[in-house]
Amino acid sequence: MSNIIFATKLKQLRKEKGLTMEELANKIGRTKSTISRWEKGERSPKMFEMVKLEQIFGIPAEEIMYDVTATSDSIIAQISATSSKLHEPRQEKVLTFAKKELSEQSSEQDTSIHEDAPSYDYTYYDQAVSAGTGQYLGETHRETVSLPVSYDADFVVPVYGDSMEPDYHDGDYIFVEQTYELSDGDIGVFELDGGAYVKELRLDGMSGSLHSLNAKYDDIAITPDRDFRIIGKVVGRYGGFR
User: Fold this and answer.
1) Are 157 and 236 within 8 A, CB to CB?
2) How many Å apart are CA 28 and CA 12, to the nearest integer?
3) What is the pTM of this model?
4) What CATH number has the domain spanning 120-239?
5) Could you tell me if 166 and 173 are in contact, meaning their C-beta atoms sit under 8 angstroms apart?
6) What is the pLDDT of residue 95?
7) Beta strands in the chain (DSSP E)
8) Which residues form the HTH cro/C1-type domain (predicted)?
């Protein structure tokens, strides 16, 4: 944002002085292309260049860079006044230190935001349900996990495979409301012949099938001779662990 403010302010000041880009460039010992890049917001001047701009336009660097009027006792004004008296190598040290402080400040803010985010506890089963050709249920391990999303769900399970892409991906966590009744078009978790699936339920009269959102997978027919049951309805997903 500061680059855009500076670019606009520099162009304004240059025109008010009646200077062309080339004339301004000559005054500070730079090329016309340098001035052009400054006014496009692509680059910012170094400290020694800001000192020359202060001298040319007769206003503090703070006002040129941020388009704000500096007060004599403001911290930024003091930094600008002090650093303008330093030789270029020492100005570079000031700039490096300021960038380091800004980076640390940003990291602290990111950590604070992450720590302040609310989390919600869910019952988690480590047995993946298949978004593919079927994942054997077997014995599952149950534990409690905390996630930064809220759903009215009875448990959470991971997804295995890609048959439900683009909506559900391998490694996603899905939130399941335990129920034994689903309607046509519902996304649910199902057990079929010992395998666990996450699929869309398709009902057509007395027949049904498990439908994959990924077109490269065929539907799985639900027939009377197969061991089939509904485990629950998918009410949400979380992809934070992929």
Assistant:
1) no
2) 17
3) 0.49
4) 2.10.109.10
5) no
6) 79
7) 120-125, 129-130, 135-136, 142-147, 155-160, 173-178, 187-192, 195-204, 207-211, 220-222, 228-238
8) 10-64
